[in-house]
Amino acid sequence: MVRARHIGVTAAALLAVAGASPGVAAAQARPPAQVRASTAADDGHLPPGWRISDGRSAPQLEWRSDRPVPMGDARVEFRSGGQLLGVPRPGRDGHTFRLPLDGRRAGELTGLQVWSGGRRLDARGTAPTADAARPPAPLPANAVDPGKPGSYRTKTGEYGLKSVRLPGFPAPVEMRAVVVAPVGAPGKRPLALFLHGRHYTCYKGRDISGEWPCPAGTKPVPSHRGYLRDQKLLASQGYMTVSISANGINGQDHLAEDGGAQARSSLVRKHLARWADWAEHPDTAPAIVRDAPRTDLSRVLLVGHSRGGEGVNRAALDSLYAPPADQDAQPGPARWNIRGTVLIGPTVFGQNPVPDVPSLTILPGCDGDVSDLQGEVYVDGTRAVSSGTALHSAVYVVGANHNFFNSEWTPGQSAAPAEDDFYDDPQHPDKVCGKRAATRLTAGQQHKAGATYIAAAARLFLAGDDKVRPLLDGSGKRAPSADPARVLSHAVGARRGAGFLPDGGVSVTGGKLCDAVDPSPSKACLGPGAKGSSPHFAQWETDREAGRHAVALHWTHAGTATRVSAGKPLPLSGSTSLALRLFVPPNSRGTQLDVSLTDASGKKATLGRVRADGLPGSERTASYWAREYRVPLTAATRAGLDLKSVKSLTLTPRSASGRAWLMDAWGWRAGTPAVRAAALPRVDLGRTTVDEGDSGVRTYHVPVRVAGEGGGQVRVYVVDPATGRTKNRLVTVRAGGDGIDVPVEVKGNTRYGTDVSYDVLVKAVRGAVVGSYRGGITVHDDDPAPTMTVTPVADKVAEGKSLKWRVSLSQAVDVDMTTMFQVAPVTGPELSTKDVSARWLRDTAGAKPDPERRLSKVDGLYLWVDIPPGRTSTDITVPTVEDRVTEPVESVRFRQIDPETGKPQTGGLVLDGSVKNAS
């Protein structure tokens, strides 16, 4: 089977925005690179572990890991030159990942890397330093401790309903759940619904897989039962709880462009719809629900772990702003009210948090899966999008990994095989997250801390108890039930007023307004010298982003002030403190900064001094995370500062030297206001697949839906398929309007090529929400592939000569054409490892001649054939050596392989050759 590597259409993606001059972003196919014909031995431009393999619809870029890559929640991503190539599909062996090249040529694949959740998979980290990390000092205890069990006994049961169909998934998805209810609780009770993340789906003994449906003889992994301790704590306090199973989504979400977020939302809302039915008709409910207290669906908390976190965020969005009918499996108005969400180590591929639903994001400091802690976007990404009254909190749990919040993902507790997701090299244990590190939590300690903070969210969001707020909003309190875990918090929203927001048009002197995501070290907030990463700067699908900033401070002597000035004066009257979210390098101690404000008349007042310590961190952790520091505004009032018109904020270091980063600063006062969701427009992108055609130029438009109410702003990114670079523009949208218009020109031809995707991304900026954040036009090449044949050039040679075959195409095309052959056994005498060139053997298969063995016994002996664009043939050779040993005629055979199975292809091409003695 022959496949191509570059499309033959000429296309242009144009970004035309209503109210602005139409712009054109050309994305024409570049002239074919000179790629020579080669075998696997010549694939030297690819790093070790990489190769180009044949695919059923396009050649594939393939990477094989030297150790198993567990099925997790973070996406595995291929990058080239720092830019996203795409999300590969995992092989069943747990080691191999393949990505259709979609128009990229092998010669263009420079700087290949494999990333997952901000962690590089294809490079070993450097040996960590031996210095032990110190945990932060314990915080003062809060007035109330939500981790204490309540007074109610609990009852546990399960229900299983008929499986459901979800758009885009061929197999039905289960409707199964475990319920834990309080016994004897009066009246209607609030409901907490749990959704687990992406994990293995099926198991038998010690064997696990990600298949769906589960093959005969295997059992579904009971991930939904992993939160029973959390459920029992909540039920003892009077909450109804249900944890739903989503194995059917986990086994198929590679088919979804959004990683399964919309499917998970549909599943959550299908369960909630059943609970709404049961509330109206209790006699139809399963026994465990029928025998429990009635449920108050006006008070619902959604708890999601990892991709489940992104799923419940989307379910909250979809409950307020209806998704497109063709993308959703649960149409109709919501008969419930989502009062809040808890997101545990969540993914946020779409970077589209719901601004008007309060949230708590739990960030595990030793997360080995979603290791960039991208869930911080559920806090940072809500700023200035809507009214700002919803509290969005993040708590950083020092020493917690990703998996141990779920007991079914925890070794020694799970029914199926499980593991610690933070991989630790026994020879070089991580000083923060190694199994014996002083800062690392045990599985029991971690789960207890998680349960405590889930209960805190329930008590604040559902019961309205403001006494637990100091645990979540950066007030610097701890819940003793979570001890010995060190849990730190910060927040935005609630009663925070006006603020200095680096994303909001401030000017900076004495420091630098830096970019959260930019490949340029001079612009990026964290340069290449950073030891670790920052959750605040987690990368999206672009190599740079507009509108994501922080203020970077760097000083070499005390007194070097940095001033942040607002575009227009800020009203801070009514606030009692100024709350700053600020971080310093991990493991640093004692950074001191004086905080001053200046009003519009130029009057200045120093509010006080903050002392900042870095979090425990290593090169493998995302420890550049902002803690919240508050300074009272009383000094400003005494100095006569006009708090109704504050112009600038000044930070003056009192330490001799150091670095710090300011995320934002807000006027703050205590309290949790009632939240009402604003009427906002919702933007969803779609995808259309079109045929290239044989001639002419056609223009297609990326499907865009803007529904809801009102107007707002979003940022639209158009990705050039040839280079991976993006162009972006701020766009004003209105419900029912067509403010986003991205035409794609497609020029037809009769040359065979690959499909090409013209991708568009969208992100909310102000006064809008985004559902389906990714869409575009996929151009399907509809021309037949040329026929490939093999002609012997020198298939019968004497020792010391080269066997040679010519691989030909029936016609030239403007793309690379590839296929692969694998050595196969022959009947009779066979060429051995000492009958061929030792260098060829090493370069082709990484093998040595000794011990002598038949070529068919050499692992990894493949011949890779690449016919460059514009050519119709190439030769492939196997050099032999003269051994001066009298032998019978020896043969060799190579068979074309199936790219999916790696096995000989039925009816495929064959290379046969024989070698006789030289004399």
DSSP helix fraction? under 10%
Q: How can the largest sheet be summarized?
A: 9 strands, mixed
From the spread of the alpha carbons, the general shape counts as globular
Distance between the termini: 39 Å
Name the descriptors.
919 residues, disordered N terminus, mainly beta, nine-stranded mixed sheet, six-stranded mixed sheet, 53 strands, globular
Short description:
This protein is mainly β. The protein is 9% helix and 34% strand.
Structure report:
With 919 residues, the protein is mainly beta. It contains nine helices and 53 strands. Strand 39 and strand 40 (726-734) form a beta hairpin. Helix 1 crosses helix 7 (443-461). It is globular. The two termini are 39 Å apart. 51% of the residues are buried. The model is unreliable at 1-44 and 126-130 (pLDDT under 50).
List the helices and strands and how they pair.
Layout: E1 3-4, E2 10-17, E3 23-26, E4 50-53, E5 60-64, E6 76-80, E7 83-86, E8 89-90, E9 96-100, E10 113-116, E11 119-120, E12 153-164, E13 173-183, E14 189-195, E15 202-204, E16 207-209, E17 219-220, H1 228-236, E18 240-244, H2 247-250, H3 261-280, H4 287-290, E19 295-305, H5 307-320, E20 338-344, E21 359-364, H6 377-380, E22 392-397, H7 443-461, E23 487-492, E24 499-500, E25 507-509, E26 512-515, E27 549-555, E28 562-570, E29 577-583, E30 591-599, E31 604-612, E32 627-632, H8 634-638, E33 646-653, E34 658-668, E35 681-685, E36 687-691, E37 697-701, E38 704-708, E39 711-719, E40 726-734, E41 740-741, E42 743-747, E43 756-766, E44 769-770, E45 774-780, E46 788-794, E47 796-798, E48 802-809, E49 817-824, H9 838-845, E50 862-867, E51 873-879, E52 890-896, E53 910-916
Parallel strand pairs: 14-18, 14-19, 19-20, 20-21, 21-22, 35-44, 36-45, 47-53
Antiparallel strand pairs: 1-49, 2-3, 2-41, 2-42, 4-5, 5-9, 6-7, 6-10, 8-9, 10-11, 12-13, 13-18, 15-16, 15-17, 22-23, 24-34, 25-28, 26-27, 27-34, 28-33, 29-32, 29-34, 30-31, 30-33, 35-38, 37-42, 39-40, 39-43, 43-45, 46-48, 48-51, 49-50, 49-52, 52-53
